[in-house]
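Re: the request from the purification team.
They wanted to know what the chain is likely to look like in 3D before they choose a buffer screen. I agreed to run a prediction and write the result into the notebook, where they can find it.
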Amino acid sequence: MLPPPPRISGKALEALSKVASHRVGAMAIKQIFRKDLGVDRLDRLPNSFRGRIPLDNAALMARAPRSGHDAQLGAPAYQGWARNAASLTADYAARKLDPVAVTEHVIAQARALAARAGGCGPVYEYAETDALKAAHASRDRYAKGSPLGALDGIPFVVKEELAVAGLRCQAGTSVKGGGAEERDATMVRILREAGAIVIGSTAMTEYGLSPIGFNPKRPMPRNPHDPRCTAGGSSTGTGVAVGCGLVPFGLGADGGGSIRIPASFNGVFGLKPTWGRVSRAGDVFGGTVEHVGPLACGTAELAEVLEITAGIDGADDQTKLAPFPASGQWRSALGRGVKGLRIGMYKHEWQSAPAHIAQKCREALSALESAGAELVEIDADIAAFAGPIGVVSIGGPAAADLATYYHAQPESFGLDLRISVAALLEFSTVEYLDAQRLRSGLRLEVQSHFERIDLLASPTLATTAPEVSDDEMATGFLDARLVEAITRYTFLANLTGLPAGSVPVGTDSNGRPIGLQLCGDAWDEGTVLAAMAQLERSGHGRAMRPQVQAQQL
């Protein structure tokens, strides 16, 4: 008899892993997963919901990116509590601080956070020698009055699935990679060339397959707003590093919400760009849903990272899909305002959202209404099933990638991942391809909606950060219903390749952050940023001060 959902941990998890090691057991667990994650509902959808099996992954654009009304408001005043990039560079220029002192301080604070009881240390491996070398070079540039730009001397962190020269790139596992990387991922290299300083790599969930924020293979950070809770995943450490004020921004990666989920849980901003907008070269993962992007303390940092990193990269053919960006287009988007924007709201998503989360998100949208936006209710058919379509779309390739390791050394996997991979390996080719046909139908449906709206709005998540025990953090657990609540609204943007951001818009009664998600048309990050910036300008969107904080200089 299998243990019932929602949460399986401890001895029950260990017993279930033994069941999963046998084919019959794995097939039974797969059926439970199908039910709890809503995948079984896909079988009953009408054939009219299905499109052709996709031949490419290009995001479908409904119309040209919005370029009409521009209020020319300028970037919003920073509303956060911790040091942002602009405050640091201003002090560098005025010789009140220097990049060496800041880098040394950030590294010391990261170690202090890791030493705290309960653990909120986000950095997994440090790049201290290279960081200090880069900081000295940045200090020399400021001394000569010739900084490289808005991120020169700014410390940042990188999710451990992106290559950082001199550090390992193991994606939260003990089976991927081994020695130190010889070269940076493209995103990391470009940011270094702009003067930004890599402090180190951040811990992530095992192979990125859990959005919750635990990993028995890593010393995982807790949520700085409530250390009894998880910090979300899979870009867990990057979310915590920004959330506790250690760094103004960091790099994450997002296959089913893994930038927006920790952004929401940790009360910060996150942006997943359009598929192909920035390079994925140097990312451990491939597949058709994984994107790379920033988490930050404010919208200015999101725009700046996009300005610096967007463009064609010969090492990633998917970047050839992107239109060539105009210089400064995302910085200027921060001041456009939202007058005349039509913001779509899927009825079924808002009706099903927890009341306390929906209320905070609606209050933020009311602020956009007051600034000139129009809210439009939309009926959706296939979009209601984005979550289960996403589970199959990300799970199939992940299982295939891990199959060799799983069969050769299953004991090297955490118990929860061992069970998940065993179940995922039981999904058939037909099930995967049928999900891709539904994904094609979804992409066409969403494209049709963007013919008459500029943004789609929803809560980022259907839950705030969940509590977790010390034992569960140490050994892992399974909670399919929690996974469904976390990824319910985020998968749509991954399946369509559309840009989407999460804005921190309040807290629940326990002080745990709530995020609002804004999704734009293909290649229209500018409209997403404009609305996010308007929320920051109005005070309805701002990075929230947590219980656990990095000391500020």
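For the purification team: The CA atoms of residues 411 and 418 lie 8 Å apart.
Please add any questions underneath this entry.
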